[in-house]
Write a structure and sequence with these properties.
3 helices
């Protein structure tokens, strides 16, 4: 039996037709730090929608959100070309 959340996520996956393709790159485990966060369940569907719109995945989406937030505080992070 599908829940309302499952149905919504299925609808979100179809949004990729309208997605914005972002630059692809890799993050090397040896040059990274793991960040684990707990989010309210109510964030899951909007998060999946945002990921689908940007044609991304959770890790890239969250990294981009962190960069955007830091930029609002005047902190920039230069990314190396992949």
């Amino acid at each position: 039996m599908k829940t309302a959340q499952t149905k919504t996520i299925a609808k979100v996956s179809r949004l990729s037709l309208y997605s914005v393709h972002m630059k692809r790159g890799t993050v090397k485990k040896s040059e990274s730090t793991m960040l684990t966060v707990w989010i309210p369940e109510t964030f899951e569907v909007p998060l999946q929608q945002g990921i689908a719109i940007e044609d991304s995945d959770k890790s890239k989406f969250v990294r981009n959100a962190i960069r955007e937030k830091l930029a609002r505080h005047g902190i920039t992070i230069e990314l190396e070309a992949a």
